[in-house]
Write a structure and sequence with these properties.
The chain has helices at residues 11-19, 35-38, 52-60, 88-99, 112-120, and strands at 25-29, 43-47, 73-76, 107-110, 124-128, 137-140. By secondary structure, the protein is of the alpha/beta class. The chain has a single domain (22-140), classed as RbsD-like domain (RbsD-like fold), CATH 3.40.1650. It has a six-stranded mixed sheet with strand order 2-5-1-6-3-4. Helix 3 packs parallel to helix 4 (88-99). It is globular, with a radius of gyration of 14 Å. InterPro entries: RbsD-like_sf, RbsD/FucU_mutarotase, RbsD_FucU. It catalyses: beta-D-ribopyranose = beta-D-ribofuranose; alpha-L-fucose = beta-L-fucose.
């Protein structure tokens, strides 16, 4: 056990977060995301039984967002014609704002198939049991600065 580390962050996940360097990307996927097929050439970490918001909040306690890009946080854009509401995105805005002073301005959207392409090159994909649709989120790691 360690002090100050959110309990939801497993040893495997902490190791991966530590290994990641500046500009590496991390996908936290919902339960419908094809994590295993997208992650054939990357690390896939299973976090079954957990949702994206609780993992996002815990990760952002230890994971700096990139300050060298305009949108270090990206969501999977809803496909044209899909009549899907995305209230979870508001939750993401609140969590990101809590951990990054730039607030929701750092959050962008990536078209669904472009998101898949980006996910294939991410450092790691975290597979969750999140039931919300279009709940996938991609984070780009920044630099840890002594405070």
């Amino acid at each position: 056990m360690l002090k100050g580390i959110p309990k939801i962050l497993s040893p495997q996940l902490l190791k991966v977060l530590c290994e990641m360097g500046h500009s590496d990307r991390l996908v936290i996927s919902d339960g419908n995301f094809p994590a295993e097929s997208m992650g054939r050439n990357t690390i896939v970490i299973r976090c079954d039984g957990h949702g994206v918001p609780e993992l996002l909040d815990a990760i952002l306690k230890v994971f700096p967002l990139d300050t060298y890009v305009e949108k270090p946080v990206n969501l999977m854009q809803v496909m044209l014609g899909d009549k899907v509401e995305t209230p979870i995105w508001k939750t993401y805005e609140e969590i990101v704002t809590k951990h990054d002073g730039r607030g929701k301005a750092v959050i962008g959207n990536i078209e669904r198939f472009a998101f898949y392409d980006e996910a294939k090159t991410a450092y790691a994909i975290i597979a969750t049991s999140e039931k919300a649709l279009y709940a996938n989120i991609m984070l780009q790691k920044g630099v840890v600065v002594d405070e």
